[in-house]
Design goal:
The complex is a heterodimer of chains A (224) and B (293).
Chain A: E1 2-6, H1 9-15, E2 21-27, H2 30-34, H3 39-51, E3 55-62, H4 69-78, H5 80-84, E4 88-92, H6 95-102, E5 109-111, E6 113-121, E7 127-131, H7 147-150, H8 177-187, H9 191-194
Parallel strand pairs in A: 2-3, 2-4, 4-5
Antiparallel strand pairs in A: 1-6, 6-7
Chain B: H1 3-9, E1 14-19, H2 28-37, E2 43-46, H3 58-67, E3 72-77, H4 83-95, E4 100-104, H5 125-136, E5 153-158, H6 166-177, E6 182-187, H7 191-201, E7 208-213, H8 218-227, H9 235-242, H10 249-264, E8 270-274, H11 282-288
Parallel strand pairs in B: 1-2, 1-8, 2-3, 3-4, 4-5, 5-6, 6-7, 7-8
Helix pairs in contact in B: 4-5, 8-9, 9-10, 10-11
The chains are: A alpha/beta (224), B alpha/beta (293).
């Protein structure tokens, strides 16, 4: 799940300066589940903007992910009159959703959220980052615990000398990823696998921006 | 072959010490300390932005020592350079006649005085050792042939007091596999703990230089116990250094350090003294430890 947080209202009002009428669009998938851009939050945002003197021409939450151009285009068409009546669109989704909307309209589009990371959702209050989208997954070699994400140094061959009582050098509250990997591998009877030396990571696979066209058979991670 | 490599190959007990380059360009004190250590140690480690604190570079100081006939150990970390810069610096070391290379991961930048810095860690200590081995075979990490092949004596570090210890030993095994020919350890204060560690890594058949840091005060011991990974100062030692007044502390620190060396000497192939500014006490320490040559 893509984790987001709401921006402070002051920041939103700063970039909405000069825009009197605003249309709001929330995301029904990640932001809705995490409670930053679903129906409730979009309605609340509309109310806060009204309190600050803005006119809300309407609001809608995408049923699918906002970042799906096909459904978001249809939804914007359905709400064309309210969108046209606005000076700007405020989008409560991750950065991908904001840019999806921006590419579909010829008017100012602003983000209501900061996009933080790709996470495992433990419950509706707790989530932790689990994937850095590095483009070359090594979870098969690390007992399905990602050191690229969970080790601040992104080490590939075991723990550094900085762990203390199994906790990370950078944050003593957090478990050392490589100690966790070692212990899981040992429990699985995989100590021999731990000893395999992994070559330096190919960061080319993590090149941005990513682009894929399945019909052209283009590779992931290729710059476009 | 470096003198360090020769001595270890000959089975001689070796002594190394450590110097930290200054923040700035005044190397007078550093060179004075190097002269003091010159005839008393086999080689001197030069730290690489120790604890992520920005200082004069290790390579430049290694060169200054080398041209004075003092054998350096070039400490090189993965924190600040990607694989291109690391390989280039290794080649630079080779043309300057520096053979001993200590390969380290490096502390995280937030531990130092430039916490905003972007961390690199493109390689890790294991792949850095592999890179050293590759360069010695006349190829770089991309497989391209080198014009002129460097010669190195690569080493690494290990923390005998790490908790848990098993992942540390597994990583040590990977470092040996990747080409580490000697190990220097984190500071050890518990000979029994060290003996247990040595027994567990005997199968690796690699020289180990036990790390010694002079215990300057009880406060320092407690600070290390709470903050420095892998350092465990037993309570009786803390009480011992705490029992003397300030002017007597250096003598007591030397006494404790010498005793630790004598207790662990038979378990390993050398001693690595990390002075943290107390270089002036190294001669006395070696004297009391029975290592003065």
């Amino acid at each position: 799940m893509v984790i987001t947080e709401q921006k402070k209202l002051e920041e939103i009002l700063r970039f909405l300066e000069g825009c009197e009428r605003v249309f709001l669009l929330g995301c029904g998938v990640c932001a809705a589940t995490w409670g930053t851009g679903g129906e409730k939050e979009t309605r609340e945002m509309a109310a806060r903007l009204a309190e600050a003197g803005k006119t809300c021409t309407g609001w809608v939450v995408t049923e699918e992910a906002t970042c799906d151009v096909r459904t978001t285009r249809r939804l914007l068409k359905q709400h064309n009159a309210q969108v046209e009546a606005a000076d700007a669109l405020l989008v409560l989704s991750c950065g991908a959703g904001v840019q999806t909307v921006a590419a579909l309209v010829d008017m100012p589009v602003y983000p209501a959220l900061n996009t933080l990371f790709l996470a495992r959702l433990q419950n509706l209050s707790v989530c932790d980052e689990r994937c850095r989208l590095c483009g070359a997954c090594i979870l098969a070699e690390t007992a399905a615990i990602c050191p690229v994400t969970l080790c601040p140094k992104g080490l590939m061959n075991g723990p550094c000398g900085g762990y203390k009582d199994g906790k990370c050098e950078v944050d003593r509250e957090r478990d050392c990823a490589w100690v966790a990997i070692y212990e899981r591998m040992e429990a699985l009877g995989w100590r021999e696998r731990f000893l395999i030396i992994h070559e330096p990571k190919d960061w080319n696979a993590a090149r941005h921006p990513g682009f894929i066209n399945k019909r052209e058979g283009a590779a992931a991670g290729g710059a476009r | 072959m470096s003198k360090l490599a020769e001595s270890l190959a000959a089975g001689q007990f070796v002594v190394t010490a450590e110097l930290g380059p200054p923040k700035g360009t005044d190397v007078s004190h550093l060179l004075k300390m190097a002269e003091l250590l010159r005839d008393r140690v086999d080689a001197i480690n030069v730290t690489d932005q120790q604890s992520s604190v920005m200082t004069l570079g290790s390579l430049a100081v290694c060169h200054l020592l080398h041209e004075r006939g003092i054998e350096p150990i070039f400490q090189i970390t993965c924190r600040d350079r990607n694989r291109i810069a690391l390989q280039s610096d290794l080649l630079s070391a080779a043309v300057l006649g520096i053979e001993n290379i200590l390969c380290l991961t490096g502390d995280y930048p937030t531990l130092g005085d430039h916490p905003q810095a972007k961390p690199v860690f493109d390689l890790d200590s294991v792949t850095l050792l592999r890179t050293v081995s590759l360069l010695q075979q006349g190829r770089d990490l991309a497989g391209k042939p080198l014009q002129g092949t460097p010669r190195f004596f690569p080493g690494a570090v290990v923390s005998p007091g790490a908790k848990p210890l098993a992942p540390q030993i597994a990583k040590m095994e990977k470092k040996v596999e990747a080409g580490a020919r000697f190990f220097q350890t984190q500071a050890v204060y518990d000979p029994a703990e060290f003996e247990s560690f040595v027994r567990q890594v005997e199968y690796l058949h690699v020289p180990i230089l036990v790390g010694i840091i002079l215990l300057k005060s009880a406060a320092m011991a407690r600070f290390m116990n709470s903050n420095v990974a892998g350092v465990n100062v037993p309570e009786p030692l803390i009480e011992e250094i705490g029992s003397v007044d300030k002017p007597s502390r250096p003598a007591k620190a030397v006494e404790i350090g010498a005793r630790l060396i004598r207790q662990m000497k038979g378990l390993c192939q050398g001693v690595h003294i990390m002075t943290l500014g107390w270089e002036q006490y190294v001669p006395q320490l070696l004297e009391e430890a029975g290592l003065a040559s």
